[in-house]
# Entry
Amino acid sequence: MLITTEMQVESALFFETPREIYTRVFRNLKPRTKPPEITVTFCKFANPDSFARYDSGRIEIRMSDLLEGAPAPVMEALAYILLGKLLRRPVPASYAHRYRLYLNRHDVRRSIHLIRQIRGRKFISGPQGKHFNLEERFEELNLRHFNGLMARPLLGWSRRASRTMLGHYDPSHNAIIISKLLDDPKVPQVVLDYVLFHEMLHLRYPAQTRGARRSVHTAEFRQAERAFPGIQEAKAFLKAL
# Structure
């Protein structure tokens, strides 16, 4: 009897519309409150982003159309995540696990990658800065640490002198962007080299996915990074910065 009941509940879930799922989840999170009007809109975002906003007595859900074909249990998990944050209610970790597991599926990650390429806009200034040339630094590091075998991606400086993101590698656009905060004569070359080398390692050791977990800095990545000459000097400067 228990098995039959569980199967009936799961079967009913598959026939719910996204709006019905969000309404049901709202009732579960706030059982004493009448659910407001809820609208669910799929948008052409460049990433699998989702937002929930409470405005004028109505809850508006906006999510990437990448999720439009997601299984009902995944949609339910996202509903708990978004409404839980919006209503400040605790959400069981199982829902976050279920959602991450879906995003880490090989076919889903491939779709995300393609959509980022098609819809994403990437500002790439070019390698020449006021004081450093990223192309020159890349080629020297490539020869010194990778036997000159690494294909050069697009290289550029960020629009703003960010202190929180000193560098990042964008696999969708095959680009390394370095914060222009480091394009300064007061910054030792070893510091810029270390940040650039760190991003180059993302090309050498891509992120690995295991179930719901996605490891960006693998054990091989960390081992290679520790071998960088001057790493302690660079980290000390960046910490002070």
